[in-house]
Amino acid sequence: MNNTANKSANSKAHLIKLLHVAKTKLQMDDDSYRANLAAVSNGKTSSKELTILQLEAALSRFQQLGFKPLATGKKRLSPSSKDQPDERSVIRALWIFMAEQRFIRDSSETAFNSYIKRMTAQKNGGQGIAECTWLRDEDAAYVVNTLKLWAKREMIKALGKTGELLRHKPYLQVLKIYLKQKEADVGH
């Protein structure tokens, strides 16, 4: 099995486990559980038959019914070192950078995942992805780009008149100038 297929299988297995946890936490009987699966998957009643998007839709449905997959109140600000670096790591790094620059009011994990869900809901016709770890391919790239645009706007605002001249420059160029200015400010 290649690496991409393995990641897909792992995320599918993870989502299936979450659905079973949700079923238990919600004290849902088997018929109700299967009816909820069928409602989001054109009649499929086994979680193993569902696609990843259908599993995510089922999990979202269970969250609407009161399931909370993250029961901890911990605020996580650093990327997980368990996963290989990918776009999800870039997303988390951008979020942390923006939090450190005070571009974000609430830098908690809850706010982070809320942002991801909001952005992916806009892209996917109302169906948002609730966790950064569930992002894949196009959705992850889309969130990276939205964060870069947001960070660029904030850096331009922080740079004042100099920033206004950079409005049409690429993100990396604005970032270099912003960091150079921050370094110069610290030196004085």
Shape, per Cα inertia axes: elongated
**Helical stretch tally:** 8
- How many domain units? 2
Terminal CA distance: 56 Å
| Average pLDDT number | 82
Query: Poorly predicted ranges (pLDDT <50, ≥5 residues)?
Result: 76-81
Assembly state: single chain
Radius of gyration: 20 Å
Describe what this molecule looks like in 3D.
The structure is a single chain. By secondary structure, the chain is mainly α. The protein has two domains: 3-64; 87-187, no CATH class. It is 64% helix and 0% strand. The protein has eight helices and no strands. The protein has helices spanning 3-25, 30-40, 52-64, 87-100, 109-123, 137-159, 161-164, 171-187. Helix 5 (109-123) crosses helix 6 and helix 6 crosses helix 8. The longest helix is centred in the N-terminal third of the chain and has 23 residues, at 3-25. Residues 76-81 have low confidence and may be disordered.
